[in-house]
Design a protein that fits this description.
Structural class: mainly alpha
Number of strands: 0
Helix content: 55-70%
Shape: elongated
Distance between the termini: 90 Å
Order of helices and strands: HHHH
Number of helices: 4
Radius of gyration: 32 Å
Low-confidence stretches: 3-11, 13-20
Mean pLDDT: 79
């Protein structure tokens, strides 16, 4: 008896070890993923090159939306990620990873924003006040001018 069939009999599934539920995709699945990827790349390219939306921020948001959809297409059609593959552990690992990435990105932007706001006063219209002149009473000598050494 081979090692693979012994392992399959031990698990009690009666399947060969190489048979995974939700395993490899078909030619049709790969072609569907490829065509969706091409369309999801061509539309944002057209939006940017022909300046259809007019506003750069809106165009950027739409392009990022297409990027998110394309990531999902790649995960489903090329990485074969679904709730059934490997008992759902791949989806759980993906959710955990996305949570960590989101926390890292939002935290980094938050820290950089507050550092810029609190540590860069000259860039936000807050300038050092000009030195005040000291009034001199009549009959007294004026204080010596400040001399800067270079």
């Amino acid at each position: 008896m081979s090692v693979a069939s012994e392992d399959a009999n031990v698990r009690g599934s009666g399947r060969d070890v190489h048979e995974e539920p939700g395993g490899h995709g078909s030619f049709r699945g790969y072609m569907t993923g490829f065509l969706l990827s091409v369309v999801l790349t061509a539309i944002p390219f057209w939006l940017v090159m022909s300046d259809v939306l007019g506003a750069p921020r809106l165009t950027g948001l739409v392009v990022m939306g297409f990027a998110v959809v394309q990531i999902v297409v790649h995960m489903v059609y090329f990485l074969h990620m679904n709730t059934k593959s490997e008992g759902g552990w791949t989806i759980l690992a993906l959710i955990f990873t996305l949570t960590l990435v989101l926390i890292t990105l939002v935290g980094s932007v938050w820290v950089m924003y507050h550092l810029d706001t609190n540590m860069m006063p000259a860039d936000h219209g807050m300038h050092m006040p000009a030195p005040q002149s000291v009034p001199v009473e009549p009959g007294t000598a004026a204080p010596p001018p400040h001399q800067h050494q270079h």
